[in-house]
Known about the structure:
Structural class: mainly beta
Strand order of the largest sheet: 1-8-7-6-5
Number of helices: 2
Distance between the termini: 46 Å
Low-confidence stretches: 1-6, 18-39
Number of strands: 31
Strand content: over 45%
Helix content: under 10%
Largest sheet: 5 strands, antiparallel
Radius of gyration: 20 Å
Amino acid sequence: MKKTTALTVTVLAIATLVGTSVAKSAGFFAQAPTPSVAQAKPSWENSKLVHKLPTVANYAKFSSNGLLLVCNGEQGKAIQLWDVRKGELLSSIKADDTTSFGDVAISPDGQFVASIVYSEIDKSIAVGLWNSKTGEPIWKKPIFTNSAEFRSPKDSGENFPASIISSLEFSPNGQSIASSARKYFGSENPQIQLWDVATGEKRFVLKSNIKSLRRMSFSPDSQVLASLGSNESILKGGTYHWQGLIQLWNPNTGQLLHTLKEKDQLLPQSMAFSPDGRTLTSLSKDAIYEAHLRTWDVKTGGTVRTVSASVDRTDDQLSLSPDAKTYLVAGQVAGSRIINVEIRKEWPLRGFDVSSGASTGLFSLDGQMLAVPTVAGIPIWQASGN
Length: 386
């Protein structure tokens, strides 16, 4: 594999936190078991704030077993790897003055970390891959160069985070990376790139018609890639019209399988595949009060069921747990809550206010942990369990 130009790397400590053991002869983490959602049902009635990681990020991901958290810390200037149990920083890959990081991901076996990379020198957006243990660069591949899709905080006159959005996901089998990067609004290039992890080869470019593509997710068997977002248009009289969309792709062929359309003005915010990959549940909300969980049949693209979700009109953050029944909502009036639609219960999220200055929350794969990147650190909560 061809190495990229080295960035500043600080390796503080790497414990055997991902996979089952460390392959000492190779110096890498051993292959972890195929991730699956745990059978134990977490309870958020007596959740506990276990850490507030002292870093500012707007993207983060849990490792498959929930023991590590990777983020674009230091206001997007470092790829940081944290020990979730201890709240300790394990390693940091730092960018130079002209480079910043967008969305991040960690491979299922914990061997690699990846990030969207923004460079002010040539206005480029790229995907980079590093060894998570040593910080050694593996490869870096361009998405755009001299691109109108590039906006740094300096260009936009804004503080972190800049009004750009990116999405990055490893497939559960560890063989592929899906990437997408563009302006937050009005992107004319809603493309998805599929990369081979071993070689850095671009396998496919999926030309989505989702104008504001915001999130992606692989099915547990890595055979389907879902992309979530919306299309915006201006009607006569200057009224905005939104159409929420989810597209399902075959990552092995690049074929578009289905385009799932939400009701007008309902925008999908988060989604989760079932453990068997047969269904996909999305959490959607309109600009006022209406919100619901809609479960789709992955094979046919049809609706299986729709369940009303409880929200306040000020809630601008909705994050769905992998169990497809529990979700985080947060807003200026009603505050931060965890809601379970199956048992119709709601619990306040105590210990840290994420109703403002926060990015989208994320649950661990087993639904037992919740992290929310904010401008004041990354709080991490643990469910109480049964």
